[in-house]
Write a structure and sequence with these properties.
The structure is a homodimer. Helices cover about 70% and strands about 5% of the residues of chain A. The first copy, chain A, is mainly alpha-helical and about 200 residues long. In chain A, helix 2 (about 45-50) crosses helix 3. The first copy, chain A, is elongated, with a radius of gyration of 19 Å. The termini of chain A are far apart. The structure holds a DNA duplex (30 and 30 nucleotides).
Chain lengths: ~200, ~200
DNA sequence: GCACTAAACGGATGAACCATCCGCTTCATT
DNA sequence: AATGAAGCGGATGGTTCATCCGTTTAGTGC
């Protein structure tokens, strides 16, 4: 019989050996650095940087995408917490808007989030579970705003993810010098879209 | 002394030999097909498909990006014509809006346009000239709309390209089956943004 | 038509990148 | 301390990339 165990936010068939867990963490750390620098992730290169054999990296993360997912976990968990706080909010529109501000900002400050939030959930074995949680919380926020009559007619839940990711895309396109300025640009574009989404 | 000559929309140091011009066209044709299918462009593979040596392809297009640019030329020229017609329009807002509809639609129906419109002009030796033309026409459309007081305060010309490309990005993210449906989604997102851009 | 030059061609080739496989090492358990 | 399972490393074969150079062909002058 195999024991089930939870680590790194995932349920798996058996716990990692101590050295393996350590290596995994190191790999994620380097991955985080590369993602932050915008360097394209090459698994062989990651292995060299960690000081570990290639196979070790490939065993933990068969593709660069998988490593990016692992790097994104922290950010996703923070977003889930933010969404949980938002559903506590009394005013539906404020809750909805504040969470959108948060998610746009998060995408701009954490480069690992965009690829995860933009990809079809089916392609994300490592984070599907977190994305489902986030999606379910966001659905509540959306439906409350809708029920309160704050959204323009014709806007559906399915429109929201594309629009949010589009805003982040726009902000990243806009040549901004420092991160702070980029956040401001993202906020500006979000305001435009929110303005367009709102019922009048 | 070298003669200057114009072909394929570019001014160069000397005209292409007939066989070279023919090959160039064939390469672009295959490139167009690949781009349309969403297949990532591999220059060696293009050579094989055209039935020509690799060197021939690399001579004409040193990078996949360069080939994409060449493929995008037709679409860019069509957009320039559309912009020229738009500046003839009497109503500033109609002209502005109709052109935006056009440019979003073009990006969704011609996959070569997005990378060219989204990239920094500096990285586009082959189409910079067309993009400048387009940009200058669009500036007129924007400034007329602005002068007519149709734009919300705080919206600048520099915001427009990112916003437009963001809309196309959003529409491409939205899982749409047929191209017609995708165009409708793009139009929908554009309406949201236009709604947010408009002065009230 | 022929000779000649410069332009263009082709594809062999070495460099770079990728990911697997398997013999060896380390951890955990008794 | 013995043992089996889990993990490790890196050599290696496969693939993709892009250059270089010997050969071919188009254009030009006669």
């Amino acid at each position: 019989m195999e024991l089930l165990s939870v680590y790194a936010g995932e349920v798996t068939a058996s716990p990692l050996r101590k050295d393996a867990a350590r290596n995994r963490q190191r790999i994620i750390e380097i991955g985080r650095k590369l993602v932050a620098d915008g360097t394209p992730i090459q698994l062989n290169e990651v292995a060299r940087a960690v000081g570990v054999g290639v196979a070790t990296v490939y065993r933990h993360f068969p593709t660069p995408q998988a490593l990016i997912e692992a790097v994104a976990v922290d950010g996703l968990e923070a977003l889930i917490q933010a969404a949980e706080r938002a559903v506590e909010q009394d005013d539906p529109w404020t809750a909805f808007r504040d969470f959108l501000v948060r998610i746009v900002d998060a995408q701009l400050s954490d480069a690992a989030l965009s690829p995860v939030l933009s990809a079809p959930t089916t392609a994300l074995p490592g984070t599907a579970h977190l994305l489902d949680q986030l999606s379910s919380l966001f659905t509540q926020l959306f439906e409350r705003a809708e029920a309160a009559g704050r959204l323009a007619p014709g806007i559906t839940l399915a429109d929201m993810t594309p629009l949010i990711c589009g805003i982040a895309f726009s902000a990243r396109m806009h040549p901004a010098v420092d991160p702070q300025e980029q956040a401001a640009v993202g906020r500006h574009y979000l305001d435009v879209v929110l303005n367009g989404l709102r019922a009048r």
